[in-house]
Amino acid sequence: MSENTKIEWADHTFNPWEGCTKVGPGCDHCYAETRNARFAGGTAVNWGPGAPRRRTSAANWRKPLAWNAAAADFMAAHGRRQRVFCASLADVFDNAVDPQWRFDLMRLIEQTPALDWLLLTKRIGNAAAMLDQALLAINHGRWNWRDNTFPNVWLGATVVDQVEADRDIPKLLAVPAAHRFLSIEPLLGELDLSLFLHDAHLPVGQSVDWVIAGGESGPGARPMHPDWVRDLRDQCAAAAVPFLFKQWGEWTPGECAENTLDMRTVEVADLSLNGEWQYQTIAGNSEFHRDDEPSVYRAGKRAAGRMLDGVQHDGFPSMP
Fold this sequence. Notes:
The protein is about 30% helix and about 20% strand. By secondary structure, the chain is of the alpha/beta class. It has one domain. It is built from nine helices and 15 strands. The chain has a seven-stranded parallel sheet with strand order 1-4-5-6-7-8-9. It starts with 11 loop residues before the first strand and ends in an 8-residue tail after the last strand.
């Protein structure tokens, strides 16, 4: 398990176990499942209903203790606390995981108070009951999770469309955490978050106070309409909510593609009136219209980058 991470919004990744089951449209092209298959001879042995989850090594479980021990040096160098993305290759609130593993994870979080733990899940409906269970086990009933929120837990829900947002954000807001955030990746449609965003003038904890958004990468990636992410950016700005744009993914609008595409041939996607993406392959510069949106062009994740209308958005919430 990698000690550090290339993920834009975290300093470390920590995977207490590996494996999961797909639960929604955002899971269709799961990079973690693909990785699991690559390291298991072509079959994702820890994925799907009934598949065993694999707990990581004791040495891996000791790494957060070392990060916590180095907290003062990190703070001196960076002026902030370290952020740990927990379970990039799994889901903390997966029903198929041995509950004792979750108890052990929460005990580790309790033992590393200098780290901010980012628990991101596609199963936010499980979070309240599973946290109650875990914290009752590790504290032997000494205190109640809902009255004694860990100050170093940031709880996030992945939503990719309006159906998931309307269903899952109220569940997220019902669970105590230092911060509640959304990861909207891959963004698969227009989203109205106006009912859920935190206003800077209200106490932290009454609504969502951080939004991460991004397009899909990897084989079979679905395009993201540029206006979808612009609208999220504007909604966050209006509510004074930090916004982080993680990536365009495989597909990018023309202004980002201008200096990155091999224009001998290029794949183009246009959003049709019926809401479906229409694909074509064009050849030659004469057919390339950089401002002809909603056209997007397959440029690849690295070339597409993460600039939105010429700006890199790296918003983060501050600790209360």
